[in-house]
Amino acid sequence: MTISAADVNKLRQMTGAGMMDCKKALQETNGDFEAAVDFLRKKGAKISANRADRDAKEGAIIAKVSEDRKLGVIVQLSCETDFVAKNEDFVAFTHKLADIAIANKPATADALRALPMDGLTVADKITEQVGKIGEKIDVVRYEVMEGENIVPYIHAGNKLSVLVSLNMPSNEANFIAGKDVAMQIAALNPVAVDKGDVDASIVEREIAIGMDQARAEGKPENMLEKIAQGKLGKFYKESTLLNQEFVKDNSKTISQMLDGIEKGLTVKAFKRISL
Predict the structure, then answer these.
(1) Which residues contact 127 (CB under 8 A, 6 or more apart)?
(2) How many degrees, rounded to 5, is the angle at CA 98 between CA 96 and CA 103?
(3) For residue range 165-201, what is the model confidence (pLDDT) as tens digits?
(4) Inside any domain, residue 196
(5) CATH code for the domain in which residue 13 is found
(6) Residues contacting 93, CB < 8 A, separation 6+
(7) Does residue 14 contact residue 33 with C-beta atoms inside 8 Å?
C-alpha cells in the first residue's frame, strides 16, 4: 500500500525512529500504527541482541532526590559512544528513568527495568532507544539511598554523580554544605565516611605496606608496627571523608566544617558512581 509522508512523520513523532525505518514499519504493517510501533520495537530488540557483545563504556549518570529529600537515587545509563552520551534526548531519557525510580523506589536495577513507562516497561523503552540510536544501551548501575536529608550532585558532563546522606533535617545552610561535601567526594573519592567504616582488609593492607616501607628504609623491626600505624593515620586523614581537609578551606576537616554549619551535623553515608 501507499504510505503518505504525513503518516511517516506521525509515526516518527510517536516513536522518534528514523524516517526510512518508519516508512518500512508502516509498509510491513499495512499502515497500522500500533502494529508499526511493535514492528519498530522488535527491530530494536533485534539490534539489541546483535550488539550484545559491544562495549558500552560511555553514558550518563544522574542523581536525583525526592521533594522531601528523604530518598535519593543514582541511575547510570550506558551507551557505546560519547556522541550519544552527550545527546540531549539520551540525557533526558536518563533523567526520566531517575524520576521513575524516585516515584517507585525500586530496590535494584532489574526492578527498575520492570516498572511501567509510557504504556510499556522501562526495559521495553530501553529497547526502543536501542532501535532509534543503534547502540547498546542499558541501566548498568543503580543506587538508592534513604535518610533524613539526602543531597544530590551531578558533575559536569553527567559522567559522575554523588548522593550524600546528612543526619539532620534539610535546610538551606546544610543543603549548601551537603553540596560542598558531595563535590569533595566527587573530587577526592574517599574510601569511607570515617575511620571505623574502612573495610578491615584495607586497613590490614595499609599496615602491611607501611611496615614494608619502613623495613625498606632500614628501620628496626621492633619499630615497624608503630611506624605503620603512623602511616595509617595519614591514610585515614587523606582517604576517609570526615577526616579529609575541606577543599574550600584546608584549615578545617569536613567534620569540623559541618559542625560549624550546624552543631552535630555529619555525614551518615554516601554513594559515588563514575564512568
Answers:
(1) 41, 44, 45, 48
(2) 95
(3) 999 999 999 999 999 999 999 999 999 999 999 999 9
(4) no
(5) 1.10.8.10
(6) 77, 125, 129
(7) yes
